[in-house]
Design goal:
This protein has 102 residues and is an alpha/beta fold.
Length: 102
């Protein structure tokens, strides 16, 4: 069963507008303890950066575990928009509650 962490950057890996990626080391410590979990970026950063550029923010041992990005949907900024993007990603990958937890 695939284990996916959908990750936003702003407000999660750093306070909005302050000390970019200052909390990334905390996330990376947890990821090292969960070797079977992969990360899919759901942050708006995916709109301005390629997947390889997003991977470069992470330490080398974890870059291969950044496996994708959610699609940008027109309603992405609406209430529930991020969830819609995640559900669309899961459907596009052929994933459901039977073969994935997130």
């Amino acid at each position: 069963m695939r284990k996916i962490i959908f990750l936003d950057f702003d407000g999660v890996l750093h306070p909005d507008g302050v000390a970019k990626f200052s909390r990334l080391p905390i996330l990376e410590r947890f990821l090292l303890e969960m070797p079977d979990a992969e990360v899919v970026v759901s942050s708006t950063w995916r709109e301005d950066h390629t997947l390889d550029q997003l991977r470069d923010f992470f330490s080398p041992p974890l870059r291969s575990r950044i496996t994708g990005v959610t699609p940008s949907l027109d309603d992405g900024y609406d209430l529930g928009g991020r969830q819609s993007e995640i559900l669309t990603y899961l459907a596009n990958e052929g994933l459901s509650d039977t073969n994935c937890c997130w």
